[in-house]
Amino acid sequence: MATAISTAGSVQPDTLAQQLCLDVADIDVAHVQTYTSVSELGAKGVGESGTGAAPAVVMNAVNDALRPFAARVTSQPMTPEVVLQALGKV
């Protein structure tokens, strides 16, 4: 499949996927550093706030998978040994 070029020089996409790719705007990434006096290093750690729920999500998924076996994991780290112990295999 060849992409056509108009007489004005613009790309004429053949497929919807090509059209969608052409409609994506350029993204400019900029970093703004502001320090805080609250921590020793002046760091804030705001970017890590979204990672707090990950361990709970993984534990809930493991416990959902273990439910048919009447097993439950309640401690971390969730190693294979902990899961096997919950299943009564160790």
Characterise this structure:
This protein starts with a strand and ends with a helix. 30% of the residues lie in helices and 4% in strands. The model has no long low-confidence stretch (mean pLDDT 82). Strand 1 and strand 2 (11-12) form a beta hairpin. It has 90 residues and is mainly alpha-helical. 1% of the residues are buried. It has a two-stranded antiparallel sheet.
Secondary structure elements and pairings:
Elements: E1 4-5, E2 11-12, H1 16-22, H2 54-66, H3 80-86
Antiparallel strand pairs: 1-2
Gist?
The chain is mainly alpha-helical and 90 residues long. Helix content is 30%, strand content 4%.
Query: Secondary-structure element sequence?
Result: EEHHH
Provide the β-strand percentage band.
under 5%
Number of helices: 3
Helical amount: 25-40%
Q: How many E strands? A: 2
How do the strands line up in the largest sheet?
Answer: 1-2
Shape: flat
End-to-end separation = 59 Å
Rg estimate, integer Å: 26 Å
> Structural class of the secondary structure composition?
mainly alpha
Uncertain regions spanning at least 5 consecutive residues: none
Overall mean pLDDT score? Answer: 82
Largest sheet: 2 strands, antiparallel
Features:
mainly alpha, 30% helix
